[in-house]
Amino acid sequence: MWTIGIDEAGRGPLAGPVSVGVFAVSSQFAMENLEGIRDSKQISEKKREEWYKALTSMEQCRCAVSFSSPQIIDTQGIVFAIQNAMNRALGKLGLDPDVCTVLLDGSLRAPEEYLSQKTIIRGDVTEPVISAAAILAKVKRDLYMKKVAKEYPEYLFEKHKGYGTRVHMEAIREHGLSELHRTSFCKNILKSRE
User: Fold this and answer.
1) What is the DSSP string of 157-186?
2) Are residues 97 and 162 in the same domain?
3) Which tens digit of pLDDT belongs to each residue from 30-45?
4) Which of 17, 38, 41, 179 could covalently link to 67 via disulfide, CB atoms 3.0 to 4.6 Å apart?
5) How many structural domains are present in the chain?
6) Quick one: how far is CA 26 from the chain centroid?
7) Between 128-149 and 45-55, two packed helices, what is the crossing angle to 10 degrees?
8) DSSP one-letter string for 95-158
9) pLDDT of 134-154, one tens digit each?
10) pTM of the predicted model, to two decimals?
11) What range defines the domain where residue 183 resides?
């Protein structure tokens, strides 16, 4: 039997993909390995990266992260984009849904073939496997945004990771949108540019 935690990162930014992390533990997994884990928003970037390294090398667990692009978000909507990334991340685990219990944060729902699933409000705070999934999603997305920042230096993605900071909005007003921007999220900023 397996327990899978699922959470997303990057629902709200103006640029970059949305990221979904899945962290699965077998019934033999030592849950004390996750002692002290916290929701990704409650710990420093350095601590998140330390946890990411630890999580991806633990025994008796599997983890995966999938992204949906800004283009998918713009054409299909953020809810579809998150679901699409989740389905692909779950597929990477290679686990039979019949032997899995899925714990999801917030308003997320696993595909219906996962008969045993529970959505938990603020699950990223109360369930260690969801906290782990949140860290995987956040760190992988942050690393991606730092990498693409080199291609788009004028936006300073390495600093704000695509979120709507004052600096980022000023860069959009000055330079317009890049391919990494979610056009549907940036309409009001562009209006104020005219």
Assistant:
1) HHHHTT---HHHHHHHHHH---TTB-GGGS
2) no
3) 999 999 898 778 899 9
4) 17
5) 2
6) 22
7) 110
8) --GGGEEEEEETT----TT--EEEEETTHHHH-HHHHHHHHHHHHHHHHHHHHHHTT-GGG-HH
9) 999 999 999 999 999 999 999
10) 0.95
11) 149-191
